[in-house]
Write a structure and sequence with these properties.
globular, 212 residues, Rossmann fold, alpha/beta, 7 strands
Amino acid sequence: MLPPEKLSEALELGIGEAQGELLMRFMALLQRWNGTYNLTSVRDPAQMMTQHLADCLAVVPALRRHRAETGAKRLLDVGSGGGLPGVVLAVLENTLSVTCVDTVGKKAAFVRQVAAELGLRNLHAEHARVEQLKLPPFDLVTSRAFASLVDFTALTRKHLAPGAVWMAMKGKRPDDEVALLPADIDVFHVEPLRVPGLDAERCLVWMRLKAS
C-alpha cells in the first residue's frame, strides 16, 4: 500500500501535505461509511488505497494537461458512487468545479458529507438520473465503471458545453465499445494509464462530438 506522498512521487503529481491529509481523511470516511451505506465492494483499507485512490490519481496528469490546453472549469462525474473519481479530482484541482451525480441518494449524501467535512467548496453532489439532471453544461464529463461508451455518451451528450469532451476511465482498451459509437462521436485519444501498485490495464478514452 502506497501512502499519498509515495503515490504523488510515482505519478509526479506534486501532492502537498494538506492535499495528502485530505485524501487520507476521504479514504477514512469512505471506509467508515461503507459499512452502513455499501459505497464500494472493496472493504480492505490497503486495497482501497490501490484500487480506488491510486486508480483515480492516475488520471490527474491527463486532466491537468487538458485543463492547461482548454481552460476547462466544470466537470461532471457520472455514476460517482462514493465520489470516485470526483472527490479525488476536487481535492487535487481546487480551481475545478466538480459535480458528482448518482441515482442512489445515500451515495450523493455521502459526497455532500465529504465536501462539508473536508471543506471542499468546489465539490457538489446531485441525486438524480444523469439524463434528467438540469444544470448548466460542463467542460468535461467523466465516468469510472459507469456504463458502456455508447450508453455513457448517449445519456450525457446534452450536458456538454461547446468544445467539451468526455473522459471515460476504462480497464482494457475498449475497442469493441468504440466500434459501436455513433458516427458523430470522435474518439480522438485512447490513453494508457499506469496505476502504481495495480497489476491491471487501465486507460482513458477521450471523446468529443464532431463538428456539424
